[in-house]
Queue: 3 jobs
Job 1
Amino acid sequence: MTSLFDSFTIGSLTLPNRLVMAPMTRARATADGIPGELTATYYAQRATAGLLVTEGVQPSLTGQSNPHTPGLHTDAQVAAWRPVTDAVHTNGGRVFAQLMHAGRVGHPDVAGHHPVAPSAIALDATLYTGPKGRQAAPVPRALTTAEVGGEIRVFADAARRAADAGFDGVELHGANGYLIQQFLSANTNRRTDAYGGSVTRRIRFAVEAAEAAADAIGADRVGLRLSPGGSVWGIAEDDVPELYAALVAALAPLGLAYLHVLTGTDEDTLVALRKAWPGAYIVNPGGQIGPREGDRAVGEHWLAQGADLISYGRAFLANPDLVERFRADLPLRTADPDTWYQGGATGYATYTSYQH
C-alpha cells in the first residue's frame, strides 16, 4: 500500500516523501514585489516536504492581485529569490514557484494597472488594496484576441526568470478564480473568438499557457493547479466533467510535471480525472478554505483513490515539521488566521518544530 512517506519521482526530481506544501498567500514582500530574508527562513523551515510550492507570484505587474505579494518579472525580483531557493536547497528541499495571474481579481490601486480579463465582467466583491482599505473590484478590460497571446507569454517569461532564480520548476495557477480559470469558466468568459464559447475554445488559454511555459523551461518542470467546480472569486462552473475532461485530454500529450487538483467537486469526477491523467497527480484535500485543516487520514484516503502526492496548506503554516509530525503521530498546531497576511515574522517564521 502506498504511504505518504514513500519516495516519488517528478521529472528529474526524486521527492523523499509524498507531502507537498500547497501555495498560500503570505503578503510579506516589499511594495515592489521583492521577497526578503524572512521568506528564505520560512521556506527553508519547511524543506522536509517532498515538494514546496510557493505563494502565488505575479508573472507581470498587470497580473498582481494583493499588496505585498512577490513577483518574477524584474531582475531585482529574480535576484531576491535566489537566496530563498538556495536556502531551500541547502536544507535538502525542492521548490516550485507558483505563477499567479490575477486577471479580474485586481485593482489599479495595488498594481498601478487596470486589470484585464477574458470579458468585461466585474467581480462582485471588494478587494484589499492597501492604505485605502477594501474597495469594489473594477470592471476589467476585456483582452483583444491579439492581446491574449501577450498574457500567455508572461507565463513563459516568468518561468524563465524562475529558472534563473534557482527554482526547480513552476506551477501555473489555474484555480481559485484567477485568470486561467476565468478563461475556463463560462460565467467569466463570454468571448466569441477562438478563446471563448465552446469548451474546446475555453480551454485554449490554459493549454497554450502550459505549452508556452513548457517550451521555456521544459515540460517536466511545469505543473498546473486546477479547482474543478470551485466557486472562489465568483466562479460558477456547471459543466465540470465535460470541461475538465477536455482540458486533461488536451494537456496530457505535453508531458507536464504534474496536475495539482483541489477537491471542489464530487470525488467520482476527481477520480475520473486521475484515471485520464497520465502523469503525476497531486490532490489538495482541503478544497476551498473550510473549518477543518487537512490531516494524515484524509491524505491516505486520496492516495488510496489513486493520487500520487497530497498537498497541505494551513497544516504546513503552523507545523514546519509536518512530515515528521505525521510520521510519528505527533499533535499538530493550528495556524492563527490573524497572522496570515499581517506581515512580519510572527505567524510566519516563528512556528517551531515539535519539542519532545
Job 2
Amino acid sequence: MNSIGRLVILVRDYEEAIEFYRDKLGFEVFVDSEAPPLRFVHVRLPKQKDMGIWLLQASSEVQEQNIGKQTAGQPCAVIYTDNFNSEYKRLIANGVNFTKPHITEASAEFAHFEDLYGNEFVLVELKEELVD
C-alpha cells in the first residue's frame, strides 16, 4: 500500500454538503462528475492534493440513518493547521459549530468541531514535530 486517497462521508444532499465544505471550511471541489445513477463529489484542502473527502449521498435507509454517525461519536478526521488561532477564528466567523472547548497543551492546540451533519473533526496545531 502507498497512501490513503479519500475519506468517505455520507451526506444527505450534495449541494448543501459542497456549500458547507467549500464555503465554511475552505475545501475545494476537485471532482464533481456524474455517471448515472451515481455522482462523484470529492473535496480537498487546496494545499493537500493527494488526500480528500468523497462526499457520498446516502442511497439507502440504513445509510440515511447513519449520516453524521459513521464513527459512533468519535472524530472522523484530524485536520492540521500551522496557525490554530487564525483558523479557529475563521471557522467561527463562518458559522462552524465547535463542540468541545479549545485546549492548549505543551505539544498541541486543538478544538473539536462538527460538519453540518454532526460528523466530528479535530482542528490541531502541533507545537513540536512528531518523531517517527
Job 3
Amino acid sequence: MSAVKIEPTLPERPGAGGPVARVRRRTVVAWASWDWGSSAFNAVITSFVFGPYLVRGVVGEARPLGLSGDTWLGISNACAGVLIALLASVTGQRADAGGHRRRSLAVWTGLVVIVMLALFSVRNEPSYLWIGLVLMATGAIFIEFAGVSYNAMLPQVSTPATLGRVSGFGWAMGYAGGIFLLLILYVGFIAPDVGWFGVTSEGGLRFRMVAVFSAVWFALFALPVLFAVPEVPAGPKTRRVGLIASYRVLFRDVRALWRADRNSVYFLIASALYRDGLAAVFSFGAILAVSVYGMAQSTVLIFGIVANLVAAAGALVLGRVEDVIGPKRVITLSLVGLIVTATILLFAEGTTMFWIFGLILCLWVGPAQASSRAFLARIAPRGREGQMFGLYATTGRAVSFLAPALFALFSGLFTDRIGIVGIALVLLGGLLALLKVRSPHRIQSPPPS
C-alpha cells in the first residue's frame, strides 16, 4: 500500500455537508476493497472464465438462429447498454438527493451477487445460452449502477491533489483482486481433473462453481466500504422527487451543465466513446484468444492473471504521473497505445503473438479507466458526484451498444478476427473527440440549486 500517499485530512470544501470528514488511509483501502471484490464479476464472469465458457463450453460449434456465440454475446451486451443508458443517471441523482449513496451501493452490489449465484444454473448445453445471456446482461446492468455510487465516493476518500493516485490505486486493487481470484480459481477448479468439493467438468460444473465462489468473494470484499465511508447528507428537498420527476430534474441539470460548462459535456461524450472501446477490449479479448488465436480455454485464465497484473501496474504508475501531467494526457497516451496495438493484433497469428500484444493492450486499459474516473471527479460539482457519475454511466451506455454492435457486425459479415476493427474504430472516435476537451484544473463547487 506504500505506493499511495494519502493526506491525513481533507480541507473544507463547499457543498453538501460543509467540511469534509477526516479521511484516513484505512478508509481509502476500505473503499478500494470494493474494486478488489468487483473483479469477481469483471474479470471472472465477463472476461476470462464464464464469458468464454458461455460461448465455447455452452454453445461450442453450434450457431443458434444462425449466429455464433460471440455474436450473441455482443447483442446481449448491447441490449444491457440501452437499459443502463436509460436509468443510470437517474439512479445516481436519486442517491445524491436522498442521501443514500452508500445504501444504493449495497443494494446494487447485493443484486450482482444474486445474479452470479444464479449462473450456477447454466449447464454446458446450447439450450442454456439464453439464460446465460440474460443473467450476464442483468449482472452488467446492476454492477454499472453500483459503480455509479462507488465512483461518486471518490472525492470523499481523496483530496484534489491525490485524486489521480487514489483512483489509480482503486483500479490497481481491482486488477490485483482479479489476479488473486483467478489464481485461486485456477488451482481450485480449473486445472485439476477433480477440483475442490469434488467438482468435475461434467455438466460444466467447474465453471458453474467458479460463478458461486466468485459471488462469495465479491460479497465479502464489498462489505468494508459500507462501514468505512460515511453516508452523504441528503440534498435539497426540491431534488428529492419521484422517479418520473427525477427525469425532469435530470434534463434541467443537463441543460444547466450545457450552458455553464460545455467542456464537461464534451468530456462525457468523448469518454462515452472510448470507454465503450475499453470495455470491449476485456469483454471480447479473452473470447478472441480462444476462437481466433488458438489459446486453450484453461490457458485463458492464466492470461487473465497476467493481464490483470499488467493493467494494475499501468494504472498505479500512471495514476501518480497523472497528478503531475493531468488526466487528459494520460488518457490520450493510453488511447494511442491501444489503437496501435489493436491494429497489430489484427494481423497477428498464433498464441505467442497474442500473449505479447494482448498484454501490451492491457497495459493501456488500466490508466485510461483510472484517469477517466479522476477526470470526472475533478470537474463534478460538490454534492452532485452521484449524478455526474450517473451521467458518466448514462453517456457511456448511451453508445455502449456501439462497440459490441460493430464487433457483431464485422464478425458476422466477415470473421471473428475482423471484429477487432469495430473496437478500434470506437477507440479512435473517442480519441478524436477527446482532443477538443480542456484539461480540468480543480474540483468545482456546486451550481445554485
